[in-house]
Amino acid sequence: MKISELQIIPIKANNGLIAMVNLVYENNLFLGSIGVHKKIDGNGYRLTFPTKKIGAKDFNIYHPINKELSKEIEKEIFEKIKHIFN
Questions:
Q1: Angstrom distances, CA of residue 41 to CA of 3, 38, 46, 48, 83
Q2: What residue ranges define each of the domains in the chain, with the CATH number in brackets?
């Protein structure tokens, strides 16, 4: 898997949200508006992917569908986040 053009945009902390991420996957797919949150216990980070509210329900716009892809995306983002926030 190849992630390129990884862009981290730090924001003023809001309910644990500390940054937004845009990236290009395999030089073919742009993924934007990924949220980076501090975990509630303050130990590490978690990602949220974009959703759209329709009526009273939230629907995923996109998200990884297997654990391997999810872990790869997290690894790339969290490595860069550590450099920015430390």
A1: 29, 8, 11, 17, 20
A2: 3-85 (3.30.1120.40)
Separation CA 76–CA 68 (nearest Å): 13
pTM over 0.85: yes
Rg (CA), the chain: 13
Which helix (H) or strand (E) segment holds residue 85: the answer is: helix 67-85
Residues 6 or more apart whose CB falls under 8 angstroms from that of 82 comprise none
Q: What is the pLDDT of residue 1?
A: 67
pLDDT in tens, 40-72: 888 899 999 999 999 999 999 999 999 999 999
Residue 38 tokens read as: 């501090």
